[in-house]
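Human: Can I borrow your eye for a moment on a structure tokenisation matter? Separate attempts, laid side by side, tell us more than any discussion would. Could you pick a protein and write out its sequence and tokenised fold? No explanation is needed for now; the record alone will do.

Assistant:
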Amino acid sequence: MQLGCVWTVGKIVSIGLSGALTYFDVADDCSALDRPTGVMFGHSRPIQRVSYSTSSDQLITVSYDGLMVRWNLATGLAEPFRGKEAHTTTIVGVVTCGDRVATVGIDDRLVMSSLSKGEYEQSLKLASQPRGLYLSSTKDLALAVCLKHLYLFSLAPEASLSPLVSLEIPPEATAGCFAPCGSLVAVGMMNGLIDVFLTDGGKCLKHVADVNAKMSGECTAMAFSPDATYLVVGDAERYLRLFKVEGVGSGCPSLTQVNEWRSHAARVTCVAWAPDGNHFASGSLDCSIIVFKPTASSKICEVRNAHPANMVTALVWKSDNELISTGHDACVRSWKFH
């Protein structure tokens, strides 16, 4: 269904109910239209999460209405994924590994898709509502954090959709992350506690007792540094805390707080490390993006109103100085830091 159109110099552009823009090349004396020259897709609802495929240089974004699109970063054009296994409501997590794209939504399903085909392929029902999906890039493993369960999945090309490991946990898990080495995961709780689990390369989820790491409020975002030396955690009380990770090799990991910031004016919504591990960025309900160094006592860079009047929902680094952000304004924005 088409909702409206505009005739500008040399083109007619029509907008559909899905938000797609269909455009035609026309002459000033045009009396009939040929086939559309092209169709431009994007999001018309708040974007929830983002993932970047280094192998194909494509961006994958998911939104509140269950739409997932892949972006060609060279042209800036997007194409929606298609298929019968699409999510029926909000998607809350997306990761990509090679040609496989995994997503989880509040329809309590994990969906596996093909990046090259742009198609939803398989889905699996989960036992409780997902809160997020996190990748261990070097081990082809994904962690699904649900309200009452944790799941480990393999994203290897021929791997089954069945979970490698599932574990029932106390309710109210709110965030998580996977160490790049694939041997350690962290899970944040509504009460601010941070739980740590050993995975043995995807063979188990063994809870580590007496970690004694805690935030001031609900854990809202967390991420390991690329070398798993640090864990940064954001919470609903505006705090960002940096923990030193030690003892992973001995099987007795510990978290020691080494830094703390409270630079945002509202709850932290997302964090992401640059590939070199020298700095990380955080986004917030206050619409801003702030960049920090682990060893610095204050922020090194701030972008206010990064998504004007809308919260920043997700961050991903394309390179050591190029950051991509998404927001509730349904926009994807790219930033370069010098």
